[in-house]
Amino acid sequence: MAEQQNNQQKGNQKEQDVNQLLKIKREKLAALQEAGKDPFQITKYDVTAHSRDIKENFEQMEGQTVSVAGRIMQKRVMGKASFCNVQDLKGNIQSYVARDSIGEEAYADFKKYDVGDIVGITGEVFKTKTEEISIHASEVTLLSKSLQILPEKYHGLTNTDIRYRQRYTDLIMNEEVKETFVKRSKIISAIRRYLDDQGFMEVETPMLVSNAGGAAARPFETHFNALDEDVKLRISLELYLKRLIVGGLERVYEIGRVFRNEGLDTRHNPEFTLMELYQAYTDYNGMMDLTENMFRYVAQEVCGTTSVPYGEHMIDLGKPFERLTMIEAVKKYTGIDFDQVPDTAAAKKLADEKEVHYENRHTKGDILNLFFEEFVEEHLVQPTFVMDHPVEISPLTKRKPDKPDYVERFELFITGREMCNAYSELNDPIDQRERFKAQEELFAQGDEEANHTDEDFLNALEIGMPPTGGIGYGIDRLVMLLTNSPAIRDVLLFPTMKSLDK
Q1: Do 350 and 374 contact (CB within 8 A), yes or no?
Q2: Which CATH architecture has domain 173-321+383-491?
């Protein structure tokens, strides 16, 4: 009881200290405004250099006058001269601020600046006696007054909930977080360069749709007041991109947000970035070759190597990716050959023996997939293409001519996670209508992730779509791989979070 009271007293004291510091910050701002030095009245500052550029090019820049701008992260006041550390986009740099160099009034103002304030510093590039590259300030300008306390003052920014909710503060305090999102941008740029060089055209398709198809997922729904119609947020990019293949655009891709009404975990966020591409006159083998080459290219461009660390593993993107059919993969890790399983009844018996949960509506193909998910996925650490899925779980995919219960589809797995999903696209409108019909029946039986019949898409197929290979990539998962990030929230600037009001 005494310990609890002591902790309560400490908590109350900390809160009082914080409130006092916040009050002082506002008083400082009021004094600046009263003196006609309101930093929020400044509209621009001409930056001529960034910290990393100065450090990497010191020999050329020594003695030059530069102007940098950034946030004060450290400050040491020592009588007539002080040091401060300023953090900008590319890192941080020390500045030597002396009263005799900037003037007595300006120096008196500088001494009142707080850690967290944003300043502009003009001065000469030099090295201190300790060989630290610095700026000898001739002018310091307060550009923005911070009215909050940077989190490391009391608890450090290690609380993941706060980091995700206040990403702006996370970016300030954790340099590696900023590097992750800089690398994310470079990854997407490298993907675009690769595809553009392969003759692909980037396009944009609707996010608000009447029929959210192309994937097995529950959509978000809303109402469009102007037309008095219910609409959905897209769960995939597929069906509109295929319409463009019908229209004669032979190689198209889109990078965009999709929305799936599903749970939150280390791999899933209800809105995420998907890239889909479609190429006429090729099949899923062509998509495998493209994927392998693109992953290798992006890793080399962004990481400078095709061997990338992820957790305790070193992922080798440089060697040929392993290729297994789903039946081969299940046989490899369970010893069960589904080619020798005669029918659904036999498959369900095997599932009962192995304690694999299934639903009454599931068929042999569904159960093969359940075995794969249960016993195989976790073992696929190095890049592995898993091919030839059951037709039951692939409603938009072309059947294998020699094995019509299976389709020309693959998924790429790395670190036990699905990285992409690809097909030889179904272009037979009669077969596609039957697949949609089967999906409607599943929906009627309670499968909320089943597709619905899309009459306009069927009309497009009836006009004629050439043989086509298509693929969808989870961009966030690729970023996780190349930045060694364990959770999808670590690579989303603003991940979905439960409201604090709940």
Answers
A1: no
A2: 2-Layer Sandwich (3.30)
